[in-house]
Structure formats: structure tokens, C-alpha cells
């Protein structure tokens, strides 16, 4: 698409220019030979019985001029293409910068919302933690972690039933498939479970009433609110 105008639209003009310029240069060269070097008459040089040298000169000059004009037009086309390419590159860089700013603003907003959520959760004395559908802890506030004897980062990503709800008060194993908290989270139900046994990091246990609430926070999560 870029070189089509050079070859198809201007080929006739290039040919005519090359022939005319070549003819003029050839006549000028012969005129120099005649006037300055005294090599015969101009008409004799042009219409000699064997003017091979004249037409060879004409052909060479024509080809030279045609090549020069072609290269000139090609150079101009490449220059225009380079300008268009630079314009496209600048536009692409501008769009990338714009999208980057939008992404940074979105990430900053998400981080601000996360900070506000954590601030709200940590402002209550009740223990609050979130579970995903696999039963892993997605978040827990300071009060909830303190009740269990852990730091919050020690519980994030861990299987909650295995870590804090694995046994009955008498020490018997509490199968996860029988866990009412886990079932409520899995089924997306809202349920209150009274007198639930939770286990601390040091091996001791305590009883709490637990409310399981369905909540959408980056996916379906449930909040377990430990009440005194």
C-alpha cells in the first residue's frame, strides 16, 4: 500500500521526465564537443549515419534520471511513512500511559477499600473471620485472632476446620462433613450456631455462639461473629 503511488501513479511522469532530461543532457554534451572541442557540426553529430554513441548516451542519461527520480520519490514516501509511524507510536504510548494511570487509580481504590474494611473489622471486640468455599480463612480481625491465640497472618489461607474446629469438647474428632459452620458457608446460608467449640493454638478450647452470614467480598465469603 505504501509504495503503490510511487510505481503506478507516477511511472508515466517519471518516464517522460527522464527522457526529456536525458535528451537535453545528451544534446548539451554534444554541443560541448562541437563548440569547445571542435568535433564537427552539431547537426552532423545528431544525424550521423551511425549515431550509436548519441543514443547510448541518451539511454544512460534517461536511466540515470529515472533512477534518481524513483529514489527521490521513494525517499519521500519513506519519510511520510516514518512520520506516520512516529505518530502511531506516540498515540500508543499515550494510550498505555492513560491505561496505566487508570489501573493505578483502581488499585489505589481497592487498597483504600481493603484498609477501610480492616479498620472497621478491627474496631470491634467481637471475633470476625471470613471463609471461602473451600473452608480456608480469607481474613480475620485482631480480636478473633487473639481469641484463638494466633496472629492474623498465621491463619490466613489455612483450613479453618482443621485449625480451630477439629474436635468436640470431649476430644472426639469432629468430621468436617458434619460441621454446621462449614455447611452454612458452602450452601451460602445465614445461620446462628449456639454453644460452638473452638480450639486455641495452645490446645485449650472455649465455647462461643457463632453467626454465619453470607457476604460477597471478592467472592462468596462468610463471617463468623464470636459472641460472649
From TrEMBL:
Organism in which the protein naturally occurs:
Candidatus Reidiella endopervernicosa
The residues forming the signal peptide are none
Q: What is this protein called?
A: PAS domain-containing protein
Q: Which positions are tagged coiled coil?
A: 71-123
The record's listing under InterPro entries reads:
PAS (IPR000014), PAS-like_dom_sf (IPR035965), PAS_fold (IPR013767)
Annotated CDD domains: PAS
Q: Which SUPFAM superfamilies match?
A: PYP-like sensor domain (PAS domain) (SSF55785)
- Which biological processes are named by the entry's GO terms? regulation of DNA-templated transcription
Domain PAS, which positions? 113-188
Q: Does the keyword Ligase apply?
A: no
Ordered alphabetically, the record's keywords are: Coiled coil, Membrane, Transmembrane, Transmembrane helix
Parts of the chain that traverse the membrane: 14-34, 54-71
Q: Has keyword Transmembrane?
A: yes
